[in-house]
Each structure stands twice: as C-alpha cells, then as structure tokens.
Amino acid sequence: MKIKYLNSRGNFKLDKADENSYLYFPIGNDADVMACVTPNLHGDNKIGQNSFLLEPVSVEGLHMTNNGRNVWFRINKKTVWAANGCSPLQVLAKQDESEEKKDFVTVEAGRLWHKMTRENASLGIAVTVLSYAPIGHQAEMMKVTAQNIGRDKLTIEPTVAIPLYGRSADNIRDHRHVTSLLHRTFVRKNGIEVKPTLSFDERGHVKNNVSYGVYTLDEEGKAPISFYPVLESFIGEGGNLTYPKAVVDQTYGKSIAMYEGDKVEGFESIAAMKMDKVVLKPGETKEYCIILSYNNQGLELLNPENEKRVFEETVRYWEEQLGIEVETGNKEFDQWLKWVGIQPTLRRIYGCSFLPHHDYGRGGRGYRDLWQDSLALLLNSKESIRNQLLSYYGGVRIDGSNATIIGKEPGDFIADRNSIVRMWMDHGVWPCMTTLLYINQTGDYEILLEETSYFKDRIIHRGTEMDGLWQEDSKVLHTHTNEIYKGTILEHILVQNLTAFYDVGDHGHMRLLGADWNDALDMAKENGESVAFSAAYAGNLENLGKLLLRLYKEKDWKKVALCTELMELIGNDPNIYKSVEKKREILKNYCNNCGSYISGKKEWISCEILAKDLLEKAEQIKKNIRSKEWIATGEEELGGWFNSYYDNNKNKVEGIFESGIRMMLTGQVFTILSRTATDQQISMIVKAADRLLFDDKIGGYRLNTNFNELKTDLGRMFGFAYGSKENGSVFSHMTVMYANALYSRGFVKEGYRALNQLFLQAADFESSRIYPGIPEYFNQNGRGLYNYLTGSASWYMLTVLTEMFGVKGDLGDLVIEPKLMACQFDKEGYAKISFYFARRKLLLIYENPEMKEYGDYEVEEIFIDDLKHDFEDSLPVIKRSYLKELEEEKEHVIRVKLA
C-alpha cells in the first residue's frame, strides 16, 4: 500500500484507503469551517467549540461510530448499500474470499479537497463523494456521483443520512439529552435545518443564533421527495445507523415521512432525505449536491455551475498559500514538501484543536504557536506580516511572562480563566527569534522602535503572585497616572529575555516553572531548571546584542529609550552574575516596581553599552553551562552531551545511572544552535545521539532514552508509554530543530540525515499510515500521530529554505549559501527552489553539472534573468536595492553556477 502522486501539484491517490483505521483529511477554509473526513466519510464539522454541526469526534471515534456523513442506496428495489460502507452486506463482504463482492475504495486528494470512490463490481455501482469547504462560506460541500459500472440497467433510490448534532462539544456528555430538548427542527423545500433555542455551554444559558442544516438537490435541481428529521424515527425502534429501518423497510419509511413546512421540537435530529429513484444505463451517472451549512450559507452552490466555479476558486486559494516549492533529485520529496508547506496555514485555521488527535483545548493557538507559525508565513508569502508581529507583542506582560489565552483576531489576548496560572519558561525565546528572522529577511530593523502596549491581568511576579489592585475591565498596563503605557518592540524583547536571565534556580540556570517547550515537563515548578532553554536565551541575547552593535556602527543608532524600571536589569557588575541570590533579588525588585502600575518614565541608553551588556550576559550563561553540564562518558564511540534539565529535587536529569544511560535531545539542540557547544562537542553529541537516540525504523532521533522511571519530580511525560508522545517518540519538532542547529554550524551531512529520515518515515505509508505531511510524532510502531497541526512544519520549511538551499536574509539583502548534498541534485545536476523575497517571486536554480558534494563546491557565477550579477564578498550577496528594481508581478530566475 503506497501513496501515489498524480501530478506536479501534489495531488495523490491511495487505493484500499478504507483498510486503515485512523486516516483523516482536513477540510477547512477562511470562513472558520474546521472539518475532517475519513475514507469512510466519518469525521466532524464545526466553526468553534460551541458550534458543531456534526458530532465531535476523537481519533478512536473515527472507527467506532457511524454517526457521520452517509448516503444510502436501495439498488434494484432490494439491496441496501451505503456510500460509507457501513451496511451489514458490505461489512460481511469484507470477510468473503470473493473480491468481486467486496467494495473497492480509493481516495484521491488535493489542496484541501478529498474525493472518495467506492465501487462494487457485483452490484454494478460506483459512488464518488467529493468533499471540500468552499472559500468564503460557512459550509461544507459534498458532491455525490453515482455511476452504473455494470452491464445491465441499474435502479437506485438514494437517501441522504447525516445526523445533525447542532451544539457545543461540551454537550457530548454534559446534558446531551437535555440539550436535544432545545432543538427546533424544520423541514425545508430542499433540506432539514436545526436551530436550538438556547446554547448550554461554558458561557451559561444563552440564546442561540446559529442554525445547522443539510440541503440537497440533484443535477437537474430536483429536491428530495420525503424527509426524516428525527433520528429515533429514522433508525426505528431497535434500529441503528448501520441498518436504519426507514431505509430498509419502505412501508415503515412511508409511514414516518415528513414534508416541507413540517416542524419537530425536542428530539435528536438527522438530515435524512430520500431522493426520487433513477434508472441508469451502463456507464451513466447521476450527480447530487449536498451542502452542510451554518445559517443557510452557500445554498446557491447546490447549482452545478456554481459548485464547479467555487470548487475551482477553493483549489486556487489553497495553491496560493504555498510560497515555497522545490525540485530536487527526489520527486517524491518535492511533492511531499508541498503538503508540509500547507500545514502552518492549517494551524492558523484549526489552532491546536479541532482535529481527531487534537481533542484538547477550546480552539485557538498558544502564544508559542503564534510566533512559530509566523516563521512559515514570513517565508511563504509576499504579504508583510509586520502588523501581525506588532499585535502579538501586545500579549507580553511587563514581568516578562505573557498571556496564554489567545483570541481569534491578531492582538486579542484574554485574562486568565478561573485564575489558573501557568507559565512556560520558553515563551520569551520565540518572539525574539522570529523578529530577528523578520528583520534579516526584510531589512525592517525600524520595527524595533515601534511602540505597543503591554498585556495586564491579575498575574504578576512571573506567575507567583496576584495583583489585588487589578481592574477586570483593563487588559493593558497603565502608569501611576492611569495612562496606557507603551514601550518599543525592542523593550518588549528585552523584558522577556532579561527577566528570564535573572529568574534562576540553585544551579544558576533559568527555572523550568510550569514547563518549557516540552509541555509534559510540568511537575518541577518549584526547583526544576531548563539548561536547554537557558542556552536558547543565551543565543537570543547574543544575536540581539550583535544586531544592536551592527546598527550602532552601520545605521547610526546611537541610543534607545527604555522604561526606567528596566534599567535595573541592565549594566550590573558581572560578579553579580555568579550569585543566584543576587539575581533573584534584582528580579524581585524589578517585579515589585512594576507589579500593578509603571512609572511611565523612560531613560536613554547607548546602543553600544546595551549591546555589550547583552553579549556579556550571553557569555555568562554559556560559561555556566559549559562548566557544569557537559557529560563526558570517557568512551570515544559513545561521545558526550549536555544535560538538559534539573528535576524538582534539584538533581541533574541526564548522565550514566544504574538504571541506564539518560540522554535528551532538547539540550543538544539549543546548545548547538546558540553556539554554546564547540565544534568538537558537536561531533561528540552527534556520536551520542546516533548511538543512543537514532532509530531508523521509526523516523530517526527519539526525544530521549528510556529513563525506566515514573519520575514525578519532573513531568507527566514519564507516565506515557516509552516511545509515545514526549517520552521517547520521534518528536518531529525537536528533530527538525536538531537538523536546523546542525546545518547552522556546518554539520550538513548530519543535518540532512535528520531531516531526510523524517521524510522517509512519513512517506513509508505501510509504517506511518498517514497522508502526506509531517505529524507531531512517530510512535513506537512508526505510526504518525497528531497530523497537520504541528510547529515542526514551520521549522521544516524554514530549514529547507534558509539552511538546505542556503537562502537567507541579512538586514534585507539576499545571501546565497547552498548546503545541498550531491544526492539532492537531479540527474542533470539541477536543484530548484521558488520563494518570495523582497516581495518578489524568485526561482533559484543551482547548477552542479559535476555533481560535486557539499564542501567541494562553491558559488562561481550568478545570473539574474540571464544577466550576470557580480558579487564582491566571498559570500554571495544580492542587495535588496537590486531586487526591489525587478518587476513585482513576475517570477524572476536566479541561476547559480557551482564549481
């Protein structure tokens, strides 16, 4: 069983798709529709936590229920057969030795459209269901085509059968029956519509304003001939959705049928609608348009011409979301990468919830996700994300923490729910990383001087205290004179990174608090320390310091204004850095001075002095890690590595123990990326990771070795089975960042191995059992889980562009530094990548006719639109000013000859 790519657009096909229990495909759009569909038409559809049209489903529910989309067919007046394959006849046929009696199911899919074809040779019928969420409409379209594939005439009587849930996900077991009493179900001319009177959910008992409906017409515009809006009547006493009595027993069906204008109150609803019978000659087809709609949106699409037009618009919309495409020596990789490139956009739509594996939370993205998804959005689109970045900084608190409940609109942050306080210590890392990438890609360093407000709620002192003076109607920080305080973006970045610098544990590393990037390290709040992210903050401080020093020297940035309170965290005697107690005291004083209000006063500081202070702090962190955390095994083949964490008992987590060797990947990633690790140490880390963590049968590098301990003094991850989730799985996000770190330090072969192994695992359908894309992780069996909604997609695309293909910005100029392996060029020695830079669409073509390996070639010549482009530096650079002179609405070709 293998995924087959059909064309250069990434469309694919999978035969016998129904023989996989956990496959699902996302169907979403720009109008808040978040749906998914399986090869058996299961899955759900919603526009938010409190508005599910189809019943909410978790991953096990995909194969445990028939409560989903279906169209029943009575064939030749006697045989009952289902488009979703759920009838007893079809289930029993799976066990039959005769292939002719079995259904053959194929899935074909493209840019957010899914087409299932189910055919049965013995019955002479094939049914195709095309599913997608039309752009601009709160609706899902199902285009159903029935075809006679036999030799004789075929009589079919279709009955659409789609249960309407119509309420909040909370009601799946919280007042499930009571909320059905709120249902008001109406039979319309061409469909069935439910509009509950009230909504019972976390908001209380509120008047409901959302209607849920399913409507259908055939290709000639004919409506259903009868309707069955009540679920219990449709299935019949003792019946179920596998063999509904209204379909099986025509006499019973006629006795309960309802018609246009009828209304039902207080029952579970179903959009069951019988269409008139049709006689098909061999080869003939009959089409039906079915739309699942919120508030009657999209009903005009039931017209075949309108449906065709909007389908083409939907496909075109999704094609425009993909800004980066490659052509290498591996065509399957090129096609697979198209699906990885779409994933960051999917997370903008679905957040971190609303797909079967992602059955947690109530929608939206976390604060970390805003920044990591921005990486891909920055690289994939010619549109500026400047305003988005500015709005995201509005979620930063003056104590360096941040809002964790994110609203739908950019800059919409919500105060803590039910006074639940949790702080992830890594959150301050990502805004700086993303903003520095933005500045280098665009040259817009002036963004650092833009001003925005700070988020304010009851939480102060980095989650350790509550503000008794806080007014609940206020969401922004005020001065003592009750004016809204605004600071520069640079100030916001400094607040996040400097407060983290002083918030240290007993070993001088930054406190773990509620968790870091690894959310499952959540049981060491008091004494845990994250060595890994201490290194990450060191990288931030160093990179920001270098940028400010460069702006000071090259752009005449002499000084900047910062809030007076922040000055206490700048310019301290380096000797203080060695004292944990003094660091904590400085942080406490700072938090006391800006707990409820801030003075509003600002002071000027030299950019040179500030830059040097940041560089000193970065070096102090690195020295502390190098001196305390390197684990030297004494064995050349085993290598060495850095300890990543301290647990709540203040013990070092990694090393060689009686229970076994303990190593985690996270600490290696950030010590490499931040330049804390030396080149020699990186070589040792690679040896250790290859020996202790690498497993090519499940996708490459595991997140950690088996600790063989529950370890309640560090996190819930150790309660997971080893090889799953954060406990020893191949966690794509950290593996991709490991590759990125290795590439950035010149360890190209090693970085390529990590990236390529993830691709090989994902592409091996027999093992991964997923559609194209990168999942959150691969489990102990090599299966991909938590598909589509993962930050690893953003980092994968970032690494492919800026490291693998070596295309990156330098204060707005384009640097070309390829790090491609010889095997990545095609047979003629070409490798291509298309991307946006300086708001221009560029196609970069590397020419390596001698198929030289990385390290043996260098850039010899550059041609832009066939004109030779001279470069002065040893590192090829194309000035932004030159690119801006190129025509905007045209793809420009950059040919780079390697020799």
CATH architecture of the largest domain: Distorted Sandwich
Write down the CATH class of the largest domain: Mainly Beta
Helix content bin: 25-40%
Low-confidence stretches: none
CATH fold descriptor of the largest domain: Beta-galactosidase, Chain A, domain 5
CATH superfamily of the largest domain, by name, is Glycoside hydrolase, family 65, N-terminal domain
- The percent range for strand residues is 15-25%
Number of domains: 4
Provide a compact summary of the structure.
It is built from 22 helices and 51 strands. With about 900 residues, the chain is of the alpha+beta class.
Question: Can you characterise this structure?
Answer:
The two termini are 42 Å apart. Helix 13 packs parallel to helix 16. The strands form 15 sheets. Strands 1-2-9-10-11-12-23-18-15-14-20 form an eleven-stranded antiparallel β-sheet, covered by helices on one side. Strands 7, 8, 13, 19, 21 and 22 form a six-stranded antiparallel β-sheet that branches. Strands 24-46-47-51-48-49 form a six-stranded mixed β-sheet. It has four domains: 4-296, Distorted Sandwich (Beta-galactosidase, Chain A, domain 5); 332-364 and 651-804, Glycosyltransferase (Alpha/alpha barrel); 386-629, no CATH class; 805-898, Sandwich (Maltose phosphorylase, domain 3). The protein is built from 22 helices and 51 strands. Helix content is 28%, strand content 24%. It is an alpha+beta fold and 899 residues long. The relative contact order is 0.08.
